[in-house]
Amino acid sequence: MIYGVVVNAKEFSDKNLAYVSGLSIIFSTIIYVLLLFSGIYYGNFIVVLPMSLIALVSTVIIPSGFFVNNPNEAKVVEFFGNYIGTIFQSGFFWTVPFVRMRTISLKVRNINTSKIKVNDFNGNPIEIAAVIVWKVISPAKACLNVGDYQEFINIQSETAVRELAGSYPYDAEDDNESLRNNSMQISSKLRDILQSRLDVVGIIIEDARIAHLAYSSEIAQLMLRRQQAKAITNARGYIVRNAITMVDE
């Protein structure tokens, strides 16, 4: 179990798949066709007959192996339901025919979670949202370990934000950590929680930060008055301490 994520099925990881340049296959095919026509022209039917059969079969097999892989993309390849490898190189290639290829983007992407209402560590209702920067580093895991990895990321991101919000108070006295006053530590904690949840789908979290943080509307005015009263009390205490210091001097 990973932060509440239960993984019972087989987990996949990337492995390289052999492929060749698509242009080299096209060039070889052209040469083969020229040799075939040459045999027909010179009447060498002992050679032409098997070559013709091979050419007939190749017209079905060879075209199915061509594919194009764009920059910052990967192809997850399955052969009759079995995962056989991942291709990261961009370009025009030829590989095993009759395969199913799924394209996975390797670009950096971000999620802006919706504002959610949750109770902080002290039980006060707050509104919180986060921005998360991520990318796929293991296409096989992203494609085969879950049904829809993007939906999985969205759900786990919201769950992680809820967990984080419930672990810290919105505001704290003294030097205790809080959501409002310790943004760097809170961001680091959020990133760690997310990374633990998303390792199973081959995702790396580049950055995670709180994008919105506020008391819920029903208590916002009450908490504002409390903060103002606290600020006035602290100011009065500061004045008294300075006055005592001046008298002592």
Automatic annotation (TrEMBL):
Membrane topology: Single-pass membrane protein
Gene3D superfamilies, per database record: Band 7 domain
InterPro entries per record: Band_7, Band_7/SPFH_dom_sf
Segments traversing the membrane: 17-38, 45-68, 80-99
Domain of life: Bacteria
Gene Ontology CC terms: membrane
Designated name of the protein: SPFH domain-containing protein
Protein's organism: Ehrlichia ruminantium
